[in-house]
Design a protein that fits this description.
It contains eight helices and 28 strands. It is α+β, with helices and mostly antiparallel strands. The strands form five sheets. A seven-stranded mixed sheet has the order 1-2-3-7-6-5-4. A six-stranded antiparallel β-barrel has the order 22-23-24-27-26-25. A five-stranded antiparallel sheet has the order 20-21-19-18-28, covered by helices on one side. InterPro entries: Peptidase_S1_PA (IPR009003).
Amino acid sequence: MPTQPPPEQETARTRRMNALFFDKSSSGWFGVSSVKFRVGAPPLRPLPVESVYNARFPPLEGLGFIEKAKEVLAANGLGDDEDADVNFIGRMVPGEPWTTQPTILIGTQWLDSSPKVWETIAIQLKRYVDEMAAPHGFDVAIEIMAPELIQPKYISPALDENLPKLSEDWPTIKDEVVGILELFPATASHMTTISLFRLGYDELVTKANPMTVYVSLDYESDQLGWDPVVQEIQCYLDGFEHDLHVHLEHNVLNHFAFPLVAPNWDEAKIEIQNPRFGFQVNPQYQTAVGPGADIGAARYITRDDQHQVSPLLGTLGCYLEIQREGTPGWTKKAFARDPSPETQNDLDDKIAFFDQDRHLFGKVWAGSGYTRRTKTNGRLDWALIEPISQDRVKGGQGQGQGINVLPDRDEWKSTQLLPRYMPYSPTFGTPLKPPPDGKRNLDQLGKDDLGYKIGTSTGATVGVFNSVQTDCKIGDEKYMGLKNPYSTEYTFIGHAHHSPDGRFGDFGDSGAVVFDEEGRALGLLFTGQSPNQCPPYGINFVIPIEDVFEDIKAFSKGKITGVRIANP
């Protein structure tokens, strides 16, 4: 059973935590990791870690691991079945099946005495399983966790009667917390996100969950050094009137571009994951392309190891029109599903679609790259695409080409949303409206206003505006030598009250246009993040549309004098 990866597979995500101390069994020395709510031997991998209930380890069956675990628990004062839940299962890092390891997983309450008691239990059980399992070639792990790391959590916007004062204080709080993180080696330069929202275990009354300063750290951050950091930050937060609580965890931003690499999963796992990742797209392929369509590079990518992979896939946001210096009129540019065929005719039609090059949309005409920022340090990530022909540009029914048509009544009804969470009905099936003149439209939203979008993976969805901004860092940008790798972003939070699964955006939705209840463009969705133990909806980051328009003009060095939403 592989518990150590080939060297090229080991990453910070799969690397084990540092050991707090070492002990010895019949197999030799082993480390013990011990942090709040979680103890393990050998040292555990960073959360989240999945339980693989269908994993089978035949040579180990019948060795009495669960019975021995209960015996050791009883000897250490945890003898009642209500005190601990014991399982013998596989545990793996999500998406890394080679990390699957047979594990005695124990769930029990965390008390002041737990660190020493749990460490003792882990040592005694590890000695036993090494003696029993080593002759069969297995390394069995011991993992003890508190319910705080197992129970589902729920996220909601930072709504509060004192929100105006909190919003005023937030920039100062955010900067000071980041400063504290930089004082400690375990967290310095490892932050990936700092945000403010409600986070807790109450699903029905989310306003009862604590107002949380959420800090995510990359997987290089050593969790053994977090306790003094948390204490220092919480001491600082207690000096405010807002009853804020700090939470640190390992987490990184999601890539909302869709990875097209064929999954190396069996049929059962593909069937389970299909509702989220949308491996099957029901409509027939379309030559004309409209907002919400998937779009990606029309070529395979060769990695450094010469392995050929599919490009990432995102969403076409909407059509824009640009006006160039010295050129009359406006030019249209694009602003950045298939089931298993039921009949042979379906299959023939789909093959012909590619054979006739109808899957080709256009060429990148201009793009921002990854390093540009707004005046307020927001991320700028845009591309303009020149369609290869006008039959690729989709219009609404009875309307001209290049019209940005919003979801119609049938599409909104198919989401099963309650009517009060839908945009105004006059927007159904009508063109996307331009943002109003003046300040950013996102700046005009209130603390509980809704935003809408149409994306490749999730279709038409709704999210709640979170009126305090988030600082975040995308992992890939650490290689780009940016003076300040963090950007400050507007966020929306999905919620199960607003759609069946609560998602606002997901893989494949990068670039989707976000609009308000009146159908006015707000911005472009570009990425997101889900806190650990939360449903997948999480927080979603949006680039203001006005900032993109201004940057297109600035990027052109005066050659583009106007940018607008394409209208009939």
